[in-house]
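Subject: two folds for Thursday's group meeting

Dear M.,

Sorry for the delay on this. The cluster queue was jammed most of the week, so I only got both jobs back this morning. I'm pasting them in the order they finished. Each block is the input sequence followed by the predicted structure tokens. Could you check whether the formatting survives your parser before we put anything on slides? The first protein is the one we discussed after the seminar.
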Amino acid sequence: MKLLEHEGKSLLQEWGIRVPEGVVAGEAEAAARAAERLGRPVVLKAQVPAGGRGKAGGVRAASSPAEAERVARELLGSTLLGHRVASVLVEESVALGGEAYLAVTVDYACGAPVLLFAREGGMEVEDILATDPAGLHRMELPGVRFPEEHEVRWFLARAGMSGKQLVRLTDVAVRLC
């Protein structure tokens, strides 16, 4: 299943996982209104079902509603990574203290879902893992049960997390599972 970013974030919100505030816009004027409503610098993200949007120019910052409108005009209707851009996600710009990688996927080799975690992550997780494959930690989730909070906390602690980060990430991981 391929989801656009805003669709995935909507699912995360349904499970109580915090995401930056954002609005989907299909017109440049709507992007400007969204930026004005958010009342702070924003990031416009082309909504296409492909990775690598940032490197391809599909993720751009705007410091004002007028700039958001200009950026949206450039993105909407363009082709990005082989897909026509019909909408943009106008999202509040947030300062990152760092990036990590957390995912749940199905490992068909072992026949079970797995929780994946890397302390280094974000957009370049594949590149990071190519140089340090031991940096990717995995926890098999056999059967049809969700992992217990203490199991996830132990897994993340073994991967090097501690303190408030461990507590917050454990909560996100449990909800993600």
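Second protein, same layout:
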Amino acid sequence: RQDYELTHGTARYWHIELDLADAEEKDWRDDAKKVVERYRADGSADLAGREKKFNILWSNTETLKPSLFARMGKPDVRRRFRDRDDPAGREVAIILERALEYSADVHNDKSHIEAAVEDFLLPGRGVVWVTYDPVVVEVGGIDTIGDQRCKLEYVHWDDYRESPAKRPEDVRWKARRHLLNRDQMRDGTDNTPPIEAWNDLPMNWSPDEGKQFEDAFKRCEVWEIWDKDENKRVYVVKGFPDLAGEGEVYNLEGFFPTPNPLIAIRTNDTGVPVPLYHIYQDQAEELDRLTTRINRMVESLKRRGVYDASMPELAKL
């Protein structure tokens, strides 16, 4: 790997890694999009002659959501060892507990967890990301952290990649996609540093791939990659294999700033998830067929009546 990066560059290496991850999960991503479309009932306008559907996927998902996650857990920070008098440790635990409560209230972490749970139930993978945002100020000629924030962020299932691996502990790198405009590339964001060559980078993402847009509506596809093997945080621009940047790592115990994704169905031979809907898809399709047949039978019914011919007035009813 080091020889390849020296010869071809870091950015080219990571473009290949991302392409391999895309190829590994291509079938799953195609299936995941279909599952989300089914849940949303996209393309099911009330047209004459169309098949009738009983959206059991929507019903099951809405039933499972509150049972899986209803509210944020209450922080409970305690000393690991309480076998001796330790007033300082007790005070630190209280401070940390209150800080976590404040952070959960201010940053609305509940909405991010809810979004990840929905991805868990539909595509089959839910991801949240921890972001650390320090504010550096100069005090007496020395750079000092003046403020620091730590918060959760939801990562859409299609904006997340990881190295192909059979088990979560074998994952070598994890990545997330950012869509940045030129101002964000020049100034940087909470997750991305300023990009020196921002003015030369392609705006390679648009709201609709089939239409032409000005640069004001386009975005640059930047991948933030956390490389556990090299203990690095790398940034590459999709479609620009000659540029790579680095950022600070958090020195976390598990290195990655994200816990293992929520996976609906996982087996020990692959890390590619399976949508939960696949388990009962055959029954759901059978329910659709029965619903369609019942609707067609009801529409084909003709109304008839019987009346006494000796009372012709009844025929007008």
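Two things I noticed about the second structure. Residues 181 and 219 are 5 Å apart (CA to CA). The first helix runs from residue 2 to 8.

Cheers,
T.
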